[in-house]
Amino acid sequence: AGSLGAAAAQSGRYFGTAVAASKLGNSTYSTILDREFNMITPENEMKWDTTEPSRGSFNFGPADQIVSHAAAHGQKMRGHTLVWYQQLPGWVSGLSASDLQSAMDNHITQEMTHFKGRIYAWDVVNEAFADGGSGQHRSSPFQDKLGNGFIEHAFRTARSADPAAKLCYNDYNIENWTDAKTQGVYAMVKDFTSRGVPIDCVGFQSHFGTGGPPASFQTTLSNFAALGVDVQITELDIAQASATNYASTVNACVHVSRCTGITVWGIRDSDSWRSGDNPLLFDGNGNPKSAYSSVLNALNAA
Ligand code: G3I
Questions:
Q1: What keywords tag this UniProt record (predicted)?
Q2: Which partner for 43 in 18, 30, 69, 180 could form a disulfide, CB atoms 3.0-4.6 Å apart?
Q3: pTM check: above 0.95
């Protein structure tokens, strides 16, 4: 197939990108988006600071723009993200524990209800684990006031709000199997699946340096999948975007049957949150880079 989305679809997968609502009117941007990608993650528009800037007052306008675009172009949507310690409006961190619990429940319920039927999978909780060797949750308003159970509680609330949506845990630096952070997330998913806590998928952000993915990445994906969840690569970008590193990353996914899709974190290098690294598949003019062909070939070979 001649586009990333169509090539991924041949093996039942999707190929997506992060999208900024403010760029949809740029024709270079939207032409590539609609030609190449069949899954969209809003880069910022579904985060708490945009969707509920003051308590109980919701703003879904920017996200609605992206969701409408996706519907008009046959693209699926990943919801990103309901519970995250960043891009959190100031009012959230000032709440008492019981107010925070009800604010979290209400935020999950209102946002999922608004988009019901239009989101394939939600990043219910994002980046809850600490960096480094602890393998434990990181400090956040949720962790510090609600305790370890906040993640389970968020997933249960999400399942009630939209029983048809897939519910994912999403994090970075969990791609190398032996890392303490990877093991911490693995233990949580294992515990959830064994106790029937609703979780359907794990997102591996995959923000890689010039070295590309860790050698164990495929092992990590298949070990998580063996717990009975789907796995996805959710925010892929690789410093300097070597064709080899991109191909290894795609191959790690396509060799795992429950790795259901790959999303890159932006279209052109100029769209990237780390634009100095030129980490994406298209250059600033919208021309495909060598990494583009290597990804397309790896998808077509799957
Ligand atoms: O919209 C405001 C604008 O009004 C303001 O004038 C301007 C001044 O700084 O900031 C604009 O907001 C910025 C926003 O992106 C939209 O461009 C924020 O400052 C900036 O912090 C924000 O960065 C986003 C970052 O998450 C925030 O943590 C990046 O675009 C986004 O790519 C990045 O995405 C995250 C994923 O959600 C989770 N995983 C890691 C990934 C990379 O950090």
A1: Carbohydrate metabolism, Glycosidase, Hydrolase, Polysaccharide degradation, Signal, Xylan degradation
A2: 18
A3: yes
